[in-house]
Design goal:
alpha/beta; seven-stranded parallel β-sheet; three-stranded antiparallel β-sheet; metal-binding; lyase; Enolase_C-like; magnesium
Length: about 325
Amino acid sequence: MLDDVEVVGVYALPLTERFRRTDVREGVLLRGPAGWGEFCPFPEYSDAACVPWLAGALEAATVGWPAPVRDVVPVNCIVPAVAPARAAELVRASGCATAKVKVADPGQTLADDVARVAAVRAALGAAGAVRVDANGAWSVAGAVEAVTVLDDAAGGLEYVEQPCASVEELAAVRRSVSVPVAADESIRLASDPLTVALAGAADVAVIKCLPLGGVSAALAVAEACGLPVVVSSALESSVGLAASVALAAALPSLPFACGLGTVSLFARDSVPAEASLRPLGGALSVAAPVPTAASLAAALTSDDGRRAWWTARLERVASLLDAP
């Protein structure tokens, strides 16, 4: 499969805020007959788990995406596990009407989360929507307690994303709270995404494009799960994020703002600043930005050791993708 593309290089892009325990985002940029693709599974993922990420990158570079049904995608701003004052600053600067707040971060308390959520609500105003994401960190009892308290701090939560790890736990939380529950990892890791809906575990499906194998594969998952969909980023640069924007643009219905404002967390991007997929007025235009020689020179700054690590990883994953 790699014979059909050019491996352009390994990028290293610093973040302005620590997010998902990441300070520098790394990945590989590919170029093919249909455009650019990005292979950027997180370092801790197994080679087998990386196969869909490579399939998505190759789809972008060699096949392309379905035609869009909308030209603009509404997005939420991202609030990492930062202090309340910084959280409010991020919300005000974003121009978004919806904020997604990270909670249950290692080393922090529920009181920290409450203060952050309250600051976000104050900055967003009464008309905005606040959602929280726990990345599966809570137990059922802990989730019920936290969601109740955070719902009060937010003056009403739009939904809570992945409060617990398992489908069974999500269903138990959903039966116990009035706040809608969104499933992220539970859908991405499920052998059959429809099981999440059938188990009564979620009201909303959070779909991530590259971890599911690209736009066409993610569209099939969205249809199979039978729930309203929010398209969310996997912390890609603008090259990879373009696939997620294409997915959101191709969905028949898009009832919620999408979690695609993450390029705002990057100190620099893989494409020129004027083409970067940063939200404007709480939305993204549907586009596939292209790197330039200058943006590549700024992005492809990984050291020899990291380049060798990513090159070896790419080759191993490609061999799995090619295997019968």
